[in-house]
Amino acid sequence: MAICADPAVVQLESYQAEKGKSSVSGLSSGAFMTVQLHLAHSKSFIGAGIIAGGPYRCAESYRAAAVIAADAFIQGSLYICMNPLSPHTTPDAKKLAKLARETAQHKLIDDVANLANHRVYIFTGSADKVVYSDVVKRTREFYEELGVHAKNIYYDDTVPAGHSIITNNLEDSELEDNKPPYINNGGFMQSHDILRHIYPNLKPASNRLSGRLVRFDQTEFFNNEPRASMSEFGYAYIPKAVEEGETARIHVALHGCKQGYNYIDYVFGRPDYENQPPYGNRYITTTGYNYIADSNNIIVLYPQAEGSDGDTQNPEGCWDWWGYTSPTPQQPDYYSRNAIQIKAIHSMLQRLGG
Fold it and tell me: What is the pLDDT, as a whole number, of residue 1?
């Protein structure tokens, strides 16, 4: 099914959107960023979808892991928030919930009391070898610690999926695979399940898309600063009814590592353009968000992160959930409203009207 794409690069426009009714979801680094964005701007959202992501400020679970803060966070991200050696070394949900409350008291994020009635979808594949299920389980505990009603949390760890967002596309990888592009065929559209949980009583997904996929200049939202590790373009799907003036809601869909439209592998610190993987915009066009959004007047915003192996150590094009974008390693701000990526994404959301 073809998507009507605008070939031009446009400035992101504004629409009739319901304020405070937006939502966000993501996979892997996009899931960690989902939690950060959700807490930083909980007034703007009513729910979140987390696929293979850990709790807020997960990389800071054990600050004493190294003398230098940046090193401690990197080690924490790898050995606590992704592949803990045992359940005893997984993130401490109670401690991180306390840290979130303290962060809110310092006015760096919105009041965590906003989360109480939010709807949260949390998923971990039982065959995930990249972000272990023990970590994702702590994400559920984290939200419960912050007062999200248990009836509003959907948690699933029963599907034998690898590290991926799941689709019903026959062309996608085998369900249990743990390899790029991290889009696996499991016989259902996970994006639809996420949106149905956050927004109950949605209409069935469209068979044909009515709207436009727009490519917009993303650089204006982060002032083209290299440390943002964000791409030149972002994307948004706009249903036709929304363009014609009907009221919309907005969903932010955050890709994972190696899934941005211009992902390129680095070999010995240099981009390997000759062997660039053909992942392109598959997260944007084939994961199913647009089809269920089309029939329900939901704008889908697809911000894009990109890799860098220079001053910004992010060769796999991940969203920042351990501090690589922070102005100084000694005082990371990646988790707050002041973080360059969070500010950029929220500014895009505000521009759209949400």
Answer: 43
Q: Apex CA 327: angle with CA 259 and CA 317, to 5°? A: 10
Q: 259 in helix, strand or coil?
A: coil
- Domain span at 241: 5-352
Q: Which of 128, 134, 177, 193 is catalytic?
A: 128
pTM attached to this predicted model? 0.94
How many whole angstroms separate alpha carbon 324 and alpha carbon 126? 29
Q: Is 88 a catalytic residue?
A: no
Percentage of the chain lying above the pLDDT 90 cut = 79
pLDDT, tens digit, 9 for 90 and up, residues 104-133: 999 999 999 999 999 999 999 999 999 999
Q: Of residues 28, 29, 173, 229, which has the active-site annotation?
A: 28
* Model confidence pLDDT, tens digit, residues 19-66: 999 999 999 999 999 999 999 999 999 999 999 999 999 988 766 545
Q: Is 163 a catalytic residue?
A: yes
- If you write DSSP's letter for every residue of 166-234 in order, what string do you get? EE--TTSBPTT---TT-EEE-SS-HHHHHHHHHSTTPPPPPSS--SEEEEEE-GGGTTT-GGG-B-SEE
241, HSE (Cβ side, Cα atoms, 13 Å)? 14
Examine the residue annotation and report whether 118 is marked as an active-site residue of this protein.
no
Q: Which of 41, 163, 255, 346 is the catalytic position?
A: 163
